């Protein structure tokens, strides 16, 4: 893995500020497609699936192919200069196998798998991905509320009702934004370790603390544009980085 490429990817994510207007033609919208593997006979655990989805996005964003003269660099630049959009779909069986042939990165957590794809025009989405259903992503499982001892943690807003597909896109965005809290060297170590992270559901008390941390710049919040499921400006996930010295 090219360390300088990871640092270049990190700089792109640190510079990202979000916002902007969508193009007039919906087909011109730039989006990152995501696919969640949900087999009918053996669906994955909810927390593992969300964790895999978030890690897949982080791995792709910090991939050496996304930097410099890499084949993914230009589409990543274009996407990060526009309004960030992610769309999650589900796949199983042969459709999941076919999805592995499309440019992207797959992450696994426990028995769960998810794949994030190189962003591009919605109108140009590969048919192997476009044919997959956006709905039907619900899986069982309770997201834990305990605070991990260290590392990148993505806290979901328990007050919002979101499908797993919607939430997968939100934790994916939070994993991107979490890199803003890492130094370049920390980002390199994180990527070389395959972007370990934890997904947690926040209690009301913890959410209040996280909102304050976001205001102080020590955590970073995802504010949804409100295109689907929830109101515009809703804070869906807040990312924080817990370092060892905070627990000593």
How is this fold's topology laid out?
Blueprint: H1 3-15, E1 30-37, H2 46-61, H3 73-80, E2 86-91, H4 93-99, E3 104-109, E4 112-117, E5 120-121, H5 127-130, E6 151-156, H6 164-178, H7 184-192, E7 197-201, H8 204-216, E8 220-223, E9 235-242
Parallel strand pairs: 1-2, 6-7
Antiparallel strand pairs: 1-4, 1-5, 3-4, 6-9, 8-9
Helix pairs in contact: 1-7, 2-6
Tell me what you see in this structure:
By secondary structure, the protein is α+β, with helices and mostly antiparallel strands. It has one domain (3-247): 3-Layer(aba) Sandwich (Bit1). It is 34% helix and 21% strand. The protein is built from 8 helices and 9 strands. The protein has helices spanning 3-15, 46-61, 73-80, 93-99, 127-130, 164-178, 184-192, 204-216; strands at 30-37, 86-91, 104-109, 112-117, 120-121, 151-156, 197-201, 220-223, 235-242. The strands form 2 sheets. Strands 1, 2, 3, 4 and 5 form a 5-stranded mixed sheet that branches. A 4-stranded mixed sheet has the order 7-6-9-8, sandwiched between helices. The protein is globular. 41% of the residues are buried. The mean pLDDT is 93.
What is the assigned CATH homologous superfamily?
Answer: Bit1
Q: Extract low-pLDDT stretches.
A: none
Structural class: alpha+beta
Instruction: List the domain count as a whole number.
Output: 1
Q: How many angstroms does the end-to-end distance come to? A: 32 Å
Query: Share of helix among residues?
Result: 25-40%
Give the overall silhouette.
Answer: globular
**Averaging pLDDT over every residue, what do you get?**
93
Main sheet specs: 5 strands, mixed
- Share in β-strands: 15-25%
> Any idea of the CATH topology?
Bit1
């Amino acid at each position: 893995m090219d360390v300088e490429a990871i640092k270049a990817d990190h700089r792109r994510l640190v510079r990202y500020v979000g916002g902007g207007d969508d193009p007039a033609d919906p087909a011109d919208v730039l989006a990152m497609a995501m696919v969640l593997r949900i087999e009918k006979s053996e669906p994955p655990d909810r927390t593992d699936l969300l964790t895999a989805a978030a890690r897949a996005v982080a791995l792709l964003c910090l991939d050496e192919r996304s930097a410099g003269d890499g084949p993914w660099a230009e589409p990543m630049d274009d996407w990060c200069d526009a309004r960030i959009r992610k769309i999650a779909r589900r796949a199983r069986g042969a459709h999941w196998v076919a999805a592995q042939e499309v440019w992207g990165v797959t992450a696994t957590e426990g028995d769960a798998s998810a794949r994030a794809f190189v962003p591009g025009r919605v109108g140009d989405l590969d048919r192997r991905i476009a044919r997959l259903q956006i709905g039907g992503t619900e899986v069982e499982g309770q997201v834990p509320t305990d605070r991990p001892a260290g590392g990148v943690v993505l806290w979901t807003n328990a007050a919002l009702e979101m499908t797993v597909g919607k939430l997968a896109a939100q934790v994916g965005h939070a994993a991107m934004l979490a890199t803003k809290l890492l130094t370049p060297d920390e980002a390199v170590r994180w990527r070389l370790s395959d972007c370990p992270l934890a997904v947690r559901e926040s209690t009301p008390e913890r959410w209040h603390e996280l909102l304050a941390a976001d205001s102080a710049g020590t955590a970073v919040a995802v504010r949804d544009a409100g295109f689907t499921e929830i109101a515009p400006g809703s804070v869906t996930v807040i990312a924080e980085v817990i370092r060892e010295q905070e627990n000593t």
